Amino acid sequence: MPAHPFDHPFDLATSFSADYTQARARFLAAAKDAGGALRAYDNPLTGPEGEALSTDTAWFGPGDAKNVLVLQSGTHGVEGFTGSGAILDWLGAGGARDLPAGLAVLAIHAINPHGFAWLRRVTEENVDLNRNFVDFDKPLPENPGHDELADALVPGALSGPVFEAAEAKISAWRTQHGETAFNVARSGGQYKHAQSMFYGGSRPTRSRRTLETIMDDHTLGARAQVAIVDYHTGLGPFGYGEPICSHAEGTQALARVKRWYGQSVTEPAIGTSSSVLKVGLNEYGWMAKLGEHATFIALEYGTYTPERGRLVLREDHWLHAHSNAQWNAPETQRIKQQIRTHFYPDTDDWREMVLFRSRQIVRQATAGLCGE
Which end of the chain has the lower number of beta carbons within 10 A, N or C? Predict the structure, then answer.
């Protein structure tokens, strides 16, 4: 009989890593020890210290498994500390050893390795991967609010008259339109302003193409059911893991999500989520490939306030748009430490909450897949 997921104690020191390089090395070693079938999808660029970059996958269970659970980390680069930690915890707790018959698990480590290594949410193209899954052969989504605010969201300076004018413009816009409209304008996704926040790109990014290749290489479209847990951080109460679902109303996929994960599921479409409605989510990429066979949630862990997140992202985008971003320069390190802390609160209580919720969600997903 498989062990209960909470029988194994948390090991924070070995689950969570100090940087991308350590996280990758630990994942590869743990996956190999657990008998995983490994594949590497190398990125030709390097990290800030010249380190090699790669998205790595590990497959556990029978190659012809009817049902597959996918654990995906690093969609938003710097958020990869958390997803990597959750996957390493699953391996350390014996998850690969205790798989039910007919179920396989595919672990995707650092789908956006450049963002993970460089402590950015975006890819090497300065694109938010979680806004990149649109059809670029069709008219792209519009975001008129962002059009109005783009120059203020990432101003040309972090102090002085230009900065003060930007903050005044944002304050006035928020007062006039309200917080929900501002959050949609800022973070809902936009396709015109390449140096601004939440840019969805002008074409599929390398990370998107890598994810689509991973789906094909593991023949996920041929499976009966595929459940995806995509690890994120930055929204909601501190440490709480919110299962966010953007499957459309009336679909089998949404019904499964609610059946498997229960009352804690939230939906941006009906206003129950810490997230507003967004375009180009990688959830839509999974649905395009797998259709109704995919059951997707974004597991979003709360950190600090959305306003703090705005300020942190503003500085990181400014750094890469308006400076030479020398890695060891004091200003670069200050900004990078801020963004790392915001999206990965490196405290024991927060990390314990991450692992508890991850084990719970993986247990629910496993039970759902095996019960369908």
Answer: N
Q: What is the pLDDT along the chain (372 residues), one digit of tens a residue?
A: 456 777 889 999 999 999 999 999 999 999 999 999 999 999 999 999 999 999 999 999 999 999 999 999 999 999 999 999 999 999 999 999 989 999 999 999 999 999 999 999 999 999 999 999 999 999 999 999 999 999 999 999 999 999 999 999 999 999 999 999 999 999 999 999 999 999 999 999 999 999 999 999 999 999 999 999 999 999 999 999 999 999 999 999 999 999 999 999 999 999 999 999 999 999 999 999 999 899 999 999 999 999 999 999 999 999 999 888 899 999 999 999 999 999 999 999 999 999 999 999 999 999 999 997
Residue type, 33: D
- Phi/psi at 38 (5° precision): -95, 145
Kindly state whether residue 90 falls inside one of the protein's structural domains. Answer: yes
In a domain, 334, yes or no: no
67-72, strands of its sheet edge to edge: 37-46, 52-60, 103-109, 67-72, 225-238, 294-302, 241-244
Which residue do the tokens 């059809």 mark? Answer: 135
Show the tokens assigned to 23. 């996280």
Query: How many Å apart are CA 81 and CA 66, to the nearest integer?
Result: 30
Element (H, E) at 73: none
SS3 261: helix
CATH number at residue 255: 3.40.630.10
In a domain, 98, yes or no: yes
Terminal-to-terminal C-alpha distance of the chain:
20
State the total domains in the chain: 1
| Range(s) of the domain holding residue 361 | 12-135+219-307+345-371
